Amino acid sequence: xxxxxxxxxxxxxxxxxxxxxxxxxxxxxxxxxxxxxxxxxxxxxxxxxxxxxxxxxxxxxxxxxxxxxxxxxxxxxxxxxxxxxxxxxxxxxxxxxxxxxxxxxxxxxxxxxxxxxxxxxxxxxxxxxxxxxxxxxxxxxxxxxxxxxxxxxxxxxxxxxxxxxxxxxxxxxxxxxxxxxxxxxxxxxxxxxxxxxxxxxxxxxxxxxxxxxxxxxxxxxxxxxxxxxxxxxxxxxxxxxxxxxxxxxxxxxxxxxxxxxxxxxxxxxxxxxxxxxxxxxxxxxxxxxxxxxxxxxxxxxxxxxxxxxxxxxxxxxxxxxxxxxxxxxxxxxxxxxxxxxxxxxxx
Length: 347
Fold this sequence. Notes:
This protein is α/β, with parallel strands linked by helices. The protein is built from eleven helices and 16 strands.
């Protein structure tokens, strides 16, 4: 009798698992935003609101482990707002990835948000698709007033003895994530000629960057790499560190162009979930659009530019993150018969 009951319970459990798997909603594209100013509809938009309003993400899913509810439409586009900072991003993405309501195994992930930009490479409003995401928090730090005279800055790799030196001791394996280069190239080719809005305020601000030809350009679309840290750092000394740090961890072919405060946390969570087959890490894209520069213009101090207001309150960069990200999202959804099984790629 006990054996019979045990067998029945086993069958019942198997049926529940099967029904849960069958009930999971297949997701084609996950859009990851990082912050919102207030409400998710009807007020000044942050990174989340434009997706909800313009893509009619009217299916709302309560998300108690996140900061905002999840929003989805019937085409298979799901959006999340993680909250700012590495810890919020890691926790929110892990919570979504383990949510049994969604089948994310074939989903493409588009991380689309604003960020700081290196004046050596980009201008305000520029959209930058990353091939490398590097963590800027995992290091030793010495106050710049106490560093040896021959050091450029007081940031040292874990396991190293001085700045910009490869680790010879202990370190961690989540400092660098390389994205699928073919997919990144495809997204860039798809968006490189997409118009990115310029404004008088952006033009007036960038005109301060005399001697920096890339910073003086109207906004454009390019490929470049991003450093994430929960510290909102600023200035030419740290900008030098960021360029060195990118090369040290991602190789000489990498090029630091944007700053962010979440992407290394998001990538860590996604790679953990890939171990369970819940995420395909070859289907991840990271787009950062430049709302501000990471270093001041000539004649201005780092203290001034750290807190200088973003031109147009950063709205052009928010609009660009939506426009460029949505161009890719719609291409994936509209040709899902092909892209469900075959990841798009370009050289």
